[in-house]
Amino acid sequence: MLGTHEFRPLALAEAKAKGLPDLGIVTVPHPIGGIAEHLVAGKARAAVDDVLATLTRASRADGGEAATLEGPASRHRAPDDLLDFQGFMMEQGWGDGLPLIPATTERVAAMLAGTRRPPGDLVAVLPPRLGRATVEQIGVNAVLAGALPEHLPVILAAVEAVGQPAFNLQAIQTTTHPCSPLVIVNGPIAGRLGINGAGNALGQGHRANAVIGRALRLVLQNVGGARPGREDRATQGHPGKYSYCVAENEAASPWEPLSVERGFPREISTVTVCASEGPHNINDHGSATAAGILTTVAGTAATVGSNNIYLGGEPLVIMGPEHAATVAGGGWSKAAFKRALWERARVPLSRFDPSNLDRFSVIHPAGFKDRPPESLVPIAREWSDIMVVVAGGAGKHSVLIPTFGATRSVTQRIEE
Amino acid sequence: MLAMEILDPVGSTTAASRALAPRPASLQGAVIGVLDNSKPNARVLLEGVARGLAEKLGAREVKRWRKPGASIGATASVLDEIAAHCGAVLTASAD
After folding, report:
1. Is the whole model's pTM more than 0.90, yes or no?
2. Residues of chain A with pLDDT > 90: what percent?
């Protein structure tokens, strides 16, 4: 297997997770993308002898070592002073930088009382490490994140959702793209747990939002083994990687909630996970009509450097309640708004650099291959791929959240 | 002082150790496969190395396959085809 020096830790971790720790890996100086082909060819020539040595090196003939079976989580001795404990956890690579609550036996037992599921139940197997996210293992990370037992059912549902094949967690955990699963909560549990979907919905100040999103991140980092700068190869990442959880503001929405669009009754609580970039503001203080809001949202969404434009996927628009009311006041259903946005939010091919056009033509031929420069590419493959959720408080703002692209959002019922 | 007992946040994995395929004694007359991971210029790197190997070892030809996308795995049928055709195969990880 070949790669560049920068990505060697990821290649090693993936080989190990696939049970092939001895796989031959040869790396060349970074980068190979975005440089002239003759420079890459030079790196190839320089690597031939290494590759040959690796290919013909004797390998272990054994194998078949059994997977570790579920048992209770193992235990460690840690400093009881909180500052020392924080230092210990960071040294182990088990923290996100912010203070952690020690996951003592007592605290984890209290956490597990928040669900009827047995501690050994396997909720998901999480790449790249192929870590076994049992109820207990998730509970340990929930304690670290500062969650309460009542938050656990939401966290379990979120972990189960990111583990679904359609979500493509392997790629999301290891990509250079700045994305993190946004947890969108629908249904009565949001009000009961105080998960904020009103003013500052994506911001700080609400414990439930903070700890649910953070618990999912710690599970992904610790159980999934996506350690920042090692297997998690994000070029910049984004602040939502600390915690990214929001409730839909169903009370202030003129439309059916996301969960109802996905086939669940209103009284059933769900989480939807969506591999999301950070939120980008859509400011429109002037429009008093649906068409006006549409113009501003479409103008903000139609950009060249987005994953969604060439990979597809489901770009997310979080409409502020006032923008949503203006659109719905024009008689538009949510589906009608999505259709209109898909028609309108398009980028002419003339705005792309030719080298990107070549690449995108292979990935998305219908959008990019052999088409005249004035042709328009929509921000999603289908109008129905665009996600619209209502959240936020008073004010004339909505946000656009582009997504990873090679992923589908997953909605999961919360088992209470 | 290490006075507090805490539970491990990482836990077990499903990874079962597997043996690598036996290393080829010689690639004389063999087909060298390339599985392009669809990242920019990965094809140039992989084919450059494969051609270099082929010249050095007297391999018969370099055959090329491609993953459907950088973040999407190769299908099982492509992997079977590669295994059936090639004496050695090179692929790439990430960028």
Report:
1. yes
2. 85
